[in-house]
Predict the structure.
Amino acid sequence: MATKKKTTDKIRESLIKLLKTTKNLDDITATALCDTAGINRATFYYHYNSVQDVFEEIYRNVEHEFADFLTHSTIGSDGTPEKSFYIKFFEFVARNADICRIIIKSGTGAFLSRALESGRYKVLGDMSKLFPACPTSKIDYYYVFVSNGFMGLLQYWLNNGMRESTREIAEIGEKIAYGGVAYLGGD
């Protein structure tokens, strides 16, 4: 069992490596993937039916981990936003940095759309608890603004070598999200 996992890990890592240099998944052949992974085609086909199957497995794993991440509370016991939520988010991104870059670069719409919609429901529920008198439409506008800004922050961080630690980038995101323009004038 450990050998099978090691082989499939090698195949997935090799596909990510190839995707970094190739814009289109359809341009990656099983032969190229096998060469990169250092395995033969029979081994590849023992584990997968196609290169697309490998990508879908990677995609599902990241999507599952993201869905699990969204189950964590974003509101502390004192009723204020939970600071560790941002740190956990950027730790998730750091663990999956290569595939996140690929998803963002390729604009893999289905994943991003589902992730943003899941995030919307999360924010809507949490902000409704924090601001019970606030209309849903106002929270939706807040979410659209903040989520698009977060995507930009995330993309900038990934594309610039993740120079800031997950804690530092989480703090930047949190301060901007909760403080808006006040972020620019403060510490």
